[in-house]
Design goal:
15 helices; mainly alpha
Length: 297
């Protein structure tokens, strides 16, 4: 992973880690569907402003079905399933289930994108997943999976498909432009949540609305821009391995923002997760031949 891809990945992690408490804050005033719609309306508006400033061209018409299909999975389905799942699933099990995403991504990358992950890479993934499991246990003291757990697992699966199968299009389109295309396309099916939306927007607490606006601007528009840029320059399995760091960052944010003191198990799990990410990105590299084409994007 080159320096630009690494910086873009790191710039993504903090906003995405903060999204989990942001979603919980937003759910205090909005239903899951309305929260999803408002968040991505805000993200879409931010990207419209960006598109007007840079005079962004539209994608070729023949690529519209692929872009819409990926957006349906990675934007609409992922965020809708995650928000509805978080209504009943505690943060510990949710973190563990979302951590399945990098595992799915590695499997899909190995099978469909021909990214050759070494045995050390798979070991690093296993180590990182173990660390996240300890973090999940440290947050709740136990793991009890509510019915919404299947929705969160579906979210992890859908976003991994989005990460892997967008890569051919990233060879063709500027990654920043591609981000705008997918967020716009992913926002369109969210319009099914319009009934009752304006009334809820009017009655919701200001703190909940501000939380959702934050979700749209930072974890939504800006973090997706940096993440897609990173994916255009490095293998998906390596980039997504950094998502195991998210629970560590989320625990730190919760400490400073909400005063939640992490348990010793959470700290140990965080150290193990970080060690796994280091193994993936030092000893688990894909072959050089697989990396060069995407660095030219």
């Amino acid at each position: 992973m080159d320096a630009r891809a690494l910086i873009a990945t790191l710039l993504t992690l903090i906003p995405w880690a903060s999204a989990f408490p942001g979603i919980r804050a937003g759910l205090e005033g909005y239903s899951p569907g309305h929260l999803t719609l408002l968040r991505f309306l805000v993200a879409s508006i931010v990207l419209v402003v960006y598109a007007l400033v840079v005079r962004m061209p539209l994608p070729e018409r023949k690529d519209w079905p692929a872009i819409f299909g990926l957006s349906l999975l990675g934007i609409f389905l992922y965020h809708t399933a995650l928000n509805y799942g978080e209504v009943t699933v505690a943060s510990g099990p949710a973190a563990l289930l979302i951590a399945c995403g990098p595992v799915f991504t590695a499997l899909f990358s190995s099978r469909f994108a021909k990214e050759r992950i070494s045995p050390w890479g798979w070991l690093g993934i296993a180590i990182a997943f173990t660390g996240v499991a300890l973090i999940a246990l440290g947050q709740e003291g136990r793991l009890e999976f509510a019915p919404g757990a299947l929705l969160i697992l579906l979210a992890a699966l859908s976003t991994s498909i989005y990460f892997v199968f967008q890569r051919p299009l990233l060879r063709k389109y500027n990654p920043l432009h591609f981000t705008a295309y997918t967020i716009w396309a992913g926002t369109l099916p969210m319009l099914i949540f319009l009934p009752g939306f304006w009334q809820e927007l009017h009655t919701a607490k200001a703190s909940a609305t501000l939380s959702v606006i934050y979700l749209g601007v930072f974890p939504g528009a800006l973090a997706y821009l940096t993440w897609t840029y990173a994916l255009s320059r490095a293998p998906a399995s390596q980039v997504t391995s950094f998502l195991y760091v998210n629970p560590v960052i989320a625990a730190a944010i919760a400490y400073f923002w909400l005063g939640e003191v992490p348990t010793s198990l959470t700290i140990i799990g965080g150290a193990i997760a970080l060690a796994g990410v280091v193994v993936v990105n030092t000893l688990g590299k894909v072959s050089t031949a697989q990396r060069h084409p995407l660095k030219q994007a």
